[in-house]
Amino acid sequence: MRVGLITPRPDHPLLAETAALLVDAGHQVLVRDPSTTETTDARSGAPASGPRASESRASGPPASGPPASGPQADVYLLKARTPRALALARELERRGARVVNSAGATALLQDRTEMADVARRAGLPFATTRTFAALADFAAGPPPAGPVVVKSRHSRKDDVVARVDTPRDLRELAARHPHEPVVVQEFAPNDGWDEKLWAVGRHVFAAHRRSELAHGDLDAPPPLPDRTDLVRRVGEVFGLQVYGVDVISTKDGTPLIVDINAFPGIRGQAGAPEALASLALGTDAAPLTLPACRS
What we know:
Structural class: alpha+beta
Largest sheet: 5 strands, mixed
CATH architecture of the largest domain: 3-Layer(aba) Sandwich
Distance between the termini: 23 Å
CATH topology of the largest domain: Rossmann fold
Shape: globular
Number of domains: 3
Helix content: 25-40%
Order of helices and strands: EHEEEHEHHEHEEHEEEHEEH
Strand order of the largest sheet: 3-2-1-4-5
Number of helices: 8
């Protein structure tokens, strides 16, 4: 089977371990860098070759898709969210390829306003979210009655995520990012620990992480509750197969979803690479295991 990785970072631990599992099991893994549209073989690092694997560096506008004669993997894992990556994924889907996650689902989760609207219409316990065209617009209005969380509307690397407790905090944040489109969520009192939940197909992983919005020292995290049903419901609503759900437990223990991510890193979770390899192969019922001869 041929598995394509759409990513500029095939050395990412999750992808690298998944690729190793697939190659050891006799499958071919092709790496497609969306910034260059060049395809390489994951085993050798050399340009892919062969009658179905010949592909040169593409020219033309960034949104151009793969050449009509280029390779077609059996499935592509979309571990990138740039406009180039999404355009490539859409073109592959148009040509009948299976892409995990779909370009549409990945793009939707980059817009936190749309994410919140879809989640709340589906009855998911998602934080109430207001949208402002610019952070300066929010700062110019009435001061919030209590602490709020301000996030960039468009999810991306190094976006704005900040807790605002006072009018001064808000003024300072707006001075740094006056034109940033933002969403605003009321800060829900909690124990300072985020529940990081990840799904790879039918497999769910979980861990506590100290919230980047927490202040001061924290008590030890409580035992993780079983959020399997909630995580799977998120996947159904958004049409996701590999995704992360960030949850906080409010004072009464009720879960509150504060963010959803397409194809997160899932670092340090035993079994995640095996689950991803199995998902790519369509054998999601049981994670792929290493050959007995591998050391």
